[in-house]
Amino acid sequence: MRAMAFSGLVSRFVLPRVGSEPEQLTIVHAGDTLPVSFVRSPRARRVSLRIDAARRRIVLTAPPRMPLEKARSFAEAHAGWIAARLKRLPERRPFIDGAEIPYFGQPHRIRHHPDSRGTVWREGTEIHVAGHAEHLPRRLCDWLVAELRRELVPLVLAKAASVDRRVKRITIRDNRSRWGSCGPDASMTFSWRLVFAPPEVVDYLVAHEVAHLVHLNHSPRFWALARKLTAGPMDPPHDWLRRNADQLLQYGA
Ligand SMILES: [Zn+2]
């Protein structure tokens, strides 16, 4: 009984959790002032730097008891790297009238209709958004999340059924550090920004998370199953995602 099997399935959209806000530092390098967000993590063994492409900032992570000055001098020692990475980030692509965004990999133009009432609709290669300009980003985002859910949920269910597993919950969220995840309780999350990616990339990610319903690791058996569950070859979508990750994080930001 398929319907019974999936009756517990909930699909929802979750906004990012507001955690402890990072401390803002600045580092001066070659006459430039570089923004750095400083966070302490109980899981960090040593100090590290990473790029947060969605927020276009550098994150400096230190273990709980490391003195701030020690962490800061680490960042200063790598200031050249920080500056280069920030400069290399793709441009922001806000949701505004006339902007182009990919819809499942196909370029679409945003058309704003300030005087119309109603919602969002797609016509050919245009996405029309009605209502006040200040509501456009939110309205378009909600619509894109719903479009992704429409594609994603049947795909997850079909692949899960093919390995005789149930999915407890599918959550679409504003996930900046990973595209998808699958927990031991069979709950899955996906980033809403996958709506910009080509269908084969969505399929590849779904196959990956569904394979985790069977193997909660990245063992050779896991990879063999993920490969089997992917509709096409697995490497091209994997490479595409790696090449385009920073770009996908700039839409609607
Ligand atoms: Zn995985």
Key structural traits:
alpha/beta; 253 residues; 36% helix; binds zinc ion; 4-stranded mixed beta sheet
Q: What does this protein look like?
A:
The chain is an alpha/beta fold and 253 residues long. Helix content is 36%, strand content 26%. It is built from 7 helices and 12 strands. Strands 1-10-12-11 form a 4-stranded mixed β-sheet, covered by helices on one side. A 4-stranded mixed β-sheet has the order 2-3-5-4. Strand 6 and strand 7 form a beta hairpin. The chain is globular, with a radius of gyration of 21 Å. It starts with a helix and ends in a 5-residue tail after the last helix. The structure holds zinc ion. The site of zinc ion has 3 residues, from helix 5.
Short summary of the structure?
With 253 residues, the protein is an alpha/beta fold.
